[in-house]
Design brief:
The chain has a single domain, classed as Arc Repressor Mutant, subunit A (Orthogonal Bundle), CATH 1.10.10. The radius of gyration is 15 Å and the shape is globular. The protein has a three-stranded antiparallel beta sheet with strand order 1-3-2. By secondary structure, the chain is of the alpha+beta class. It has four helices and three strands. A hairpin with a 5-residue loop joins strand 2 and strand 3.
Length: about 110
């Protein structure tokens, strides 16, 4: 089965996707990218060049924290998890996203 075409994410969307990916459990960077790719049925493929700067940005904002651990394949990896502030930000951004997509859907639905 061919890969679906890649889609450029609007500004800020990657942060929302990372926060959502971390909502259930801590993950290392590769795990976050794989989770997003799997849940999106291969439509969203996050490149390392975008992922790691976003993770650092989210850390600086206090929305995620990181600690070293061991991955499933027994390698040392940095695991990221949401902070309390990150959970609040996820709720805020999810609400804003739903409002935005409803408005875009309304405009696209007009003749």
């Amino acid at each position: 089965m061919p890969n679906p075409p890649s889609i450029d994410l609007p500004q800020g969307t990657l942060d929302l996707l990372i926060l959502k990916a971390l909502a259930l459990e801590p993950q290392h960077g590769w795990g976050i990218a794989v989770r997003i790719q799997q849940i999106s049925s291969d439509v969203l493929r996050i490149q390392q060049g975008s992922l790691y700067p976003a993770l650092h940005r989210l850390q600086r904002r206090g929305w995620i924290k990181a600690k070293w651990g061991t991955s499933d394949n027994n390698r040392r990896a940095k695991f990221y998890e949401l902070t309390v502030a990150g959970r609040k930000q996820l709720q805020t951004e999810t609400g804003a996203w739903k409002t935005l997509t409803a408005a875009v859907d309304a405009v696209l639905g007009t003749a």
